[in-house]
Design goal:
This protein is α/β, with parallel strands linked by helices and 373 residues long. Helices cover 63% and strands 10% of the residues. It folds into 3 domains: 86 residues, Chorismate Mutase Domain, subunit A, CATH 1.20.59; 141 residues, 3-Layer(aba) Sandwich (Rossmann fold), CATH 3.40.50.720; 106 residues, no CATH class. It is globular. The two termini are 31 Å apart. The mean pLDDT is 92.
Length: 373
């Protein structure tokens, strides 16, 4: 093929790229129009059923024109993320007609500020309360419709104990990562509606769309419904869970995983491993594991230490993990191939279909992780 032919083909590719950009811009303008209509109607930012239908349609259309469906799906997922981020920069609707007064205790903290900003952009009357707030500012709590406690775990109880004399219709909520004790504290000090929230995301997220919000009802669930609906309007996937089950699961989802990451980091430190060399010579899966370790240590240490210390079953779960670890280590030391295979296959059978689901999910993550600069 001549050099002229190569240049001609590349010119054609460049023209296609330009057309793609123009179409993306047109789609973005339509998204902005849609956001306006959704705001007026009070519709949620994220509608999972709609997204699934769009993806299914795109994949089928890709097959019809002999285009790789996975490519079309990947492109649409990136477009979705940009769409949600774009809509998240706009004003939101309220889940209730009446303008409610909301107090965010810890509203200048990272996560508290995120929620305070969203309430403000939904045209709520927002009051920020901090430890240095005046008595007059604290007195405003008697007039609010919602008190959201967004303070570090170690001071949550002491802050909740100050919530006396609230309006009996006021909703009191917290956002700590454990739920049984905070719910008890809130219901002890306040006779009205109480709900425990656990945002399964951090303050660094650029949009609440697709983010998981767990919630545990404490008292008067119907009076708290407007708050759950508001999180849905912002794009959260809200999931109710019983407080006991929540804390049991979090002992694995949070306490055990954080402990393992801290242990791995401590081992790297003690061995003085060359992190740069490890990163450069890691396959995507191992680099991702290293990234998760680094991600934890790049954040507030007090948060993770307090999660470990306040997990009601964390120590028991970690001790059980340690026993399994030692058992597997013994098999390895004894070069017991049969025993190791037996353990592997037992876990595989236990996971069932989830193993294949997690394989596909991790493959998508690894594909993105492999795109190194």
């Amino acid at each position: 093929m001549s050099e002229a032919s190569v240049d001609s083909i590349r010119q054609g590719i460049d023209e296609c790229d330009e057309q793609l950009l123009l179409l993306l811009k047109k789609r973005q303008q339509l998204v902005e129009q849609l956001a306006q209509v959704k705001r007026e109607k009070g519709d949620a930012l994220y509608v999972p059923e709609r997204e699934k239908k769009v993806l299914a349609r795109i994949q089928q259309q890709a097959k019809n024109i002999e285009l790789e469906p996975a490519l079309a799906s990947d492109v649409m997922q990136r477009i979705f993320r940009n769409s949600y981020q774009l809509q998240s920069q706009m004003r939101f609707s309220r889940s209730c007609e009446q303008v409610k007064k909301v107090a965010v205790i810890g509203g200048r903290g990272k996560l508290g500020a995120l929620f305070a900003e969203h309430f403000q952009r939904s045209a709520y009357d927002v009051v920020i309360i901090e430890k240095d707030s005046t008595n007059d500012e604290w007195a405003q709590l008697k007039l609010v419709d919602l008190v959201l406690v967004a303070v570090p775990i170690e001071v949550t109880e002491s802050v909740i104990q100050q919530l006396t004399g609230l309006n009996k219709n006021c909703v009191v909520a917290d956002i700590t990562s454990h739920k049984q004790k905070p719910l008890g504290w809130m219901m002890e000090v306040h006779s009205g509606p109480v709900i425990g929230l656990h945002p399964m995301f951090g303050p660094g997220c650029t949009t609440l769309a697709r983010q998981l919000m767990l919630f545990c009802h404490g008292r008067e669930a119907e009076s708290c419904q407007w708050l759950i609906e508001q999180f849905s309007v912002w794009g959260c996937l809200c999931r109710e869970v019983e407080a006991t089950q929540h804390d049991e699961v979090m002992s694995i989802v949070q306490a055990l995983r954080h402990f393992c990451a801290i242990s791995a980091g401590q081992h790297l430190l003690s061995s003085q491993a060359d992190i740069g060399a490890i990163a450069q010579m890691s396959s995507p899966v191992y680099r991702m594991e290293l990234a998760f370790i680094g991600r934890l240590f790049a954040q507030n240490p007090e948060l993770y230490v307090d999660i470990l210390l306040n997990s009601s079953q964390g120590v028991e779960v970690i001790e059980s993990y340690s026993e399994q670890y030692q058992s597997l280590l013994a098999l390895l030391k004894n070069k017991d191939r049969t025993g190791l295979l037996k353990c592997f296959n037992e876990v595989k059978e236990y996971l069932g279909d989830y193993a294949e689901d997690f394989l596909q999910e991790s493959n998508r993550l690894l594909a993105a992780a492999s795109e190194r600069n």
